[in-house]
Design goal:
The protein is elongated, with a radius of gyration of 27 Å. It is built from 5 helices and 10 strands. Helix 3 runs antiparallel to helix 4. It has 2 domains: 70 residues; 123 residues, Cupredoxins -  blue copper proteins (Immunoglobulin-like, Sandwich), CATH 2.60.40.420. The protein binds copper (II) ion. The site of copper (II) ion has 7 residues, from loops.
Length: 256
């Protein structure tokens, strides 16, 4: 006699759904692979992005392997110890050795990840390295105001250069960003640089970055800051030092 479960598995509808499911994953993966659409992390353009991504992948691998082992064991046990005629369940009160092992191993992994994270955190968010360039970014409903200090190297003076939603930075130079907000809390997010920080009214926050290659990417506001939040986006151009100076010159000409 075929058990009820097997009968359901063999029914036409179930077979159709299973076949569709099996085909869906590879065809979708193939379509994305050939469409040029990026479904994973955005390209890394930052000098410290690699260490953040490395930590991300390390945690993904550890949790992924443990997930596969645990779920695999669960499935094997479900099948192997399923209800069968003449078999009775055995009651066990646990095993101290096994419990010590599955407590100590995760604890060691957790402490190891804690030290690794601290190393990356202090590199990215600790004392910034000496800056080649300083930029002021001020969030406002619903735009990014960008301010360059001009030739005197000081902000809020006559020769400042200001733009709205247009930020240019030279490649391979350390940039210190002074982050402010005019009204509500915004969040300055550069996905390609793996950096995100809140812009809080009344506080000047700081972050640093260094681009590794020329690119055109977007500046995102990652805080629901009002009705126009969806259109609060800026554009960041990473270019050579010469192109950056030329751009700064033309912006200076426009605003003075
Ligand atoms: Cu915003």
């Amino acid at each position: 006699m075929i058990p009820q479960f097997t009968k359901i598995l063999l029914s036409g509808w179930t077979k159709g759904i299973m076949l569709g499911g099996c085909l869906f994953v590879p065809t979708t993966a193939w379509a994305f692979g050939h469409s040029g659409v990026r479904v994973w992390l955005p390209e890394n353009l930052s000098i410290y992005g690699k260490s953040i991504d490395g930590l991300f992948y390390l945690i993904l691998w550890i949790t992924g392997i443990i997930f596969a082992l645990v779920e695999g064991t669960l499935l094997v046990f479900l099948f192997r110890y399923r209800a069968r005629a003449g078999k009775t369940a055995t009651y066990t009160h646990g095993n101290n050795l096994v419990e010590v092992i599955w407590t100590v191993i995760p604890a060691i992994i957790l402490v190891f990840l804690g030290f690794q994270s601290q190393k990356v955190w202090s590199y990215v968010r600790g004392n910034p390295p000496p800056a080649d360039l300083e930029v002021q970014v001020t969030g406002e409903q619903f735009a990014w105001n960008i301010r360059y200090p001009g030739t005197d190297g000081r902000f809020d003076t006559e020769d400042d250069i200001t733009t709205i939603n247009q930020m240019h930075l030279p490649v391979n130079q350390t940039v210190l960003v002074h982050l402010k907000s005019k009204d509500v809390i915004h969040s300055f997010f550069l996905p390609h640089f793996r950096i995100k920080q809140d812009a809080v009214p009344g506080i000047t926050g700081h972050l640093w970055l260094e681009a590794t290659q020329p690119a055109n990417v977007e500046i995102v506001c990652a805080e629901l800051c009002g009705l126009g939040h969806y259109r609060m986006r800026g554009f960041l151009t990473i270019e050579s030092a010469q192109a950056f100076q030329d751009w700064l010159g033309s912006e200076y000409g426009d605003s003075h």
